[in-house]
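Table S7 (text form). Paired inputs.
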Amino acid sequence: MDDRLYPLPGAAPVPPEVLARLKAAVGPRGVAEDPAEIAPHLVAWRDGWRGEVPLVLRPESTAEVAAIVRICAEARVPIVPQSGNTGLTGGGQPHMGGSEIVLSLARMNRIREVDPLNDSMTVEAGVILQTVQEEAARHDRLFPLSLAAEGTCRIGGNLSTNAGGVQVLRYGNARALVLGLEVVTAQGEIWDGLRSLRKDNAGYDMKQVFLGAEGTLGIITAATLKLFPRPRDSAVALVAVPSAEAGIELLALMKAAMGETVTAFELMHEICFTLAAQTMGHEDPMPGSEWRVLLQVDGPGPQGKMAEALEAALGEALERGIATDAVLPASLDQAQKLWRIREDQAEVQQRAGAGIKHDISVPVSRIPEFVAKADAALAAVYPGFRPCTFGHAGDGNLHYNPIRPEDWTDAAWKAETQAINRIVHDLVAEMNGSITAEHGVGRLRMHEMARLKDPVEMSLMRRLKAAMDPAGILNPGKLLA
């Protein structure tokens, strides 16, 4: 059976009397029962995850979330928390069989407070990431979490999956951007941990338990986020480098020359640009260069200072042979065109043919070794595959997505998923890396994580789950096999 289409083992449909209690808890505006309304909550936008539920609940307040959880805990009905439904590992989709309910946080979309002097903002879980960014900008602040889905993903899901994005190098993952949380526990209790403190040494840091837990330990309903001074000056460059090794040397040079102003550093294989041109009409600014780096530096100003410093650093890179060419856009529009090539990679790959997705991280210094060994290992078994490799080299995270050879069918290539995953993930494990750097585990990586992760660590995770959700109602069949 396809594991994207299976029911929860031993689960039964939700009893009608429980459905009636759940509907009463949120009122008519908080319930979706029409199949057309439910449908978008049941499918993933990529890779075929889908399920069945009798209804979708859309609470408007934390109190309503807590009421839903109490009813489900009493009746042992599983809950699938859902935010923007933009995840990539099947963590937000229910199983088949109608034994679960989807709890959508989309209506909980209020910005509760902005405190510019404390550089903090408190928002509900259903606020769209781009809205958080825009609200911060209205107060002359920056919320730096940035990813391709920012116009549709919601902050609760970002925090539940510990999202990454292009600015992790400077600002850290989602968990580094959180000061406090409000969470509904598996028993339906409300934990108000919305403290806006930078220093709090009074016991366990409970918010970290829920960040990155993918809704398996509690349901995040609100968060107090860190804000930063808004950069006044930026500069972008696309740099050709002779090898992946040179790309990492360029990173070291840029950090030494420009310090923490280096905000983003994306290493991309030539194939990413070729396919972007073929499938979406993007212009390739420097054809023929096997590896390129797309980087951005941000600073306090004055205008033009970052561009001058970047040009000087790149001049040194060219002199030393670390770089062979560089393009510095002359306008914001040109810079945005370069970034769109990077941001469109998910759609580019969908159009180019079946690809086997990997979201891995290794120590930054070992990125070239990983790429060389993975390419060689796959080429030995699958000659002609296209190594669409790109990602956040500044923090060791690569999206290593081999695309089928041009003479293969999509179906034939997808049939090799498990074999290709094993080759790539075993290599990652040898390098003491991670098989999921920013996308989360969900259902996609659940069994591979159990295979490769330290047994003691897996035991600790299972004990934590059993202690905090003994009935196993929160997002079951995800993260922990």
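Next pair, protein 2 of 2.
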Amino acid sequence: MLDPVAVTALTPPLACPSCRAPMSARAVAGHNGARIALDLCHACRGLWFDEGESLRLAPDGIVDLFGELNAHKDDAQTPLGHDLACPRCRRTLAEGVDLVRTGRYFTYRCPQRHGRFATFAAFMIEKGFVRQLSAPEIADLAERVRIIHCGSCGAPIDLRQHDACPYCHSALSLLDPKAVQQALADYQARAQRAAAGPRAPDLADALIRLEQDRERVKREEQKERWQGTARADDLWAVGLSEVWGWLSARVKS
């Protein structure tokens, strides 16, 4: 698990840009043995990144972060406020939309470049840890729970009427162990290439991609994942439980 950042005893915690409550400071692994202090609000499910911090996270740091998020996945959630403020200068954060291969996500940046605020779901989309739900999966989920909450903005979505969030227009996506596995392997491979110079594609990376292709055929098994879950309307919590189970098994092996 993550270690508390020692300097928090000397400096007051940052206020959450949304709810203004003190955020939790945690240290995670960065590149080249560095430690990066992240600030999290579990009630708002949000992360504050000082300028450039998200780019300096090492794969091991991301695994640590998953452990922290999983430990708090059942915490009561507070909807995001309308006017988010920078915890450094208190100026209103500028809302923007970024598009990556795995979807679109909202981000909130300080106009003075102190950093940015992102929901946990937006961070996972940014890093490629999610996959979009297929039409059959959405139809099946609609029969089971009907209403889910958008991972990007928290708004309720009636799956019998919408196949994307009608408020922020984000596609419905799931935090998926296979997507996390592939993304972490890609990050690790990039770090190794940067340290060792150009090299041929790693066999392990190729095997992971092959396994990813096989998993696409088995997506109907997703139905079993949703059966019996107490919070099936919260795809974030369901997916996080599965991802952390896979990560924990990998660490033990």
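Residues 74 and 220 are 26 Å apart (CA to CA).
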